[in-house]
From TrEMBL:
Keyword Nucleus: no
Keyword Repeat carried by entry: yes
Any Pfam family: Calx-beta
Protein name stated in the entry: Calx-beta domain-containing protein
Gene (UniProt): 105314733
A single GO BP: cell communication
Location of the Calx-beta domain: 19-131
InterPro entries attached to this UniProt entry: CalX-like_sf, Calx_beta
Organism in which the protein naturally occurs: Amphimedon queenslandica
GO cellular component: a single term: membrane
Length: 169
């Protein structure tokens, strides 16, 4: 019985020693609205020939899921055999709101289907920061702004369409 246990323990060690360790390529990712955030995990060099599905937990900080970023609460990266890095994209929709930077957090977690599949390294947390993008003015908007600015300089009362264009109360 004891022998069995010893053999079993050694077997576990062997399995554990053969598992790859994953970390994030970058702990801080910055992305503009309307673009995609590239999320990359890195496998330790001695396990380049190992393939795993790496699980990442996605949590809101100030950015709102489904509005500021498009991702479920758990995403999976296929870390192919023979490759050191594996990446996926999270889409960041553009919106017309003028806002401050928003962020969400990524954490590499152990596989929920097989906890022995891989190790989670020290650098297993990354923050994605979303930069607000100001929409460029269309030709019509530029023309309206120019007209309104001209009227404003003459000191005349501004016509109604000029009020939102100039951003005055
Ligand atoms: Ca915005």
């Amino acid at each position: 019985m004891l022998l069995y246990l010893i053999v079993l323990l050694q077997l576990f060690q062997l399995i554990a020693a053969n598992a790859a360790t994953y970390t994030f390529q970058s702990s801080s990712i910055t992305v503009n609205e309307g673009e995609s955030a590239e999320i990359c995990v890195v496998k330790d060099g001695s396990h380049i020939s190992v393939q795993n599905l790496v699980y990442i937990q996605v949590e809101e900080i100030s950015a709102v899921r489904g509005v500021d970023f498009i991702a479920s609460d758990q995403i999976v990266i296929d870390s192919m055999s023979g490759q050191l890095t594996a990446c996926t994209n999270i889409f960041i929709p553009f919106n017309d709101d003028s806002e401050t930077d928003e962020s969400f957090r990524l954490t590499i977690i152990t596989s929920p289907v097989n906890v022995h599949a891989y190790y989670v390294g020290m650098a297993n947390v990354a923050t994605v920061t979303i930069k607000n993008v100001i929409a460029p003015l269309s030709c019509k908007e530029k023309l309206l702004l120019l007209t309104c600015k001209t009227i404003e300089m003459t000191g005349k009362n501004l016509p109604r369409p000029c009020i939102p264009a100039l951003g005055n109360p």
